[in-house]
Input
Amino acid sequence: MAPQRALQVLIVDDDPGILSALTRLLQRDGHTVQTATNGQEALALLHERGFDLILCDLLMPALDGQNLYGLLQWQLPALCQRIIFLTGDTLSPDSMLFVEQCGQPWIPKPCGIAEVRTAMAQILPALVHNAPEEPGERVPVEQLPLTGPLPEGADPRSPLQE
Output
């Protein structure tokens, strides 16, 4: 069996607990993770290097997820197909209209690793078939490490909390 290659994942969220928990869970699944606490930091990182996947909160200071998505549509449009949105703002008509119209997967917070893995699986075709913004080798779908062992006794449905 060929060695698995990790996805390069950018997590954008202003909640340190969510950043920490998602980072740990995705690293345990074999992925390389970088974090940003707002859209401005994320945009700078996205211009510096390529990412296979972006997990992005909708509501953040400085530059929120919806405006970051708008800038990416203009500056780095191929990345728009590789975003999964996170939000605790499920009662806001504006937030729900946005995620419905953009067509990207979204996960209500708090969430567990099972929801994250399911959303990642939804965008696998975009990860495999669309070229990255920067030159690089694509990972064959059968080699994407979307699952990994959970610690003994861990509940895959448990919320991402410290």
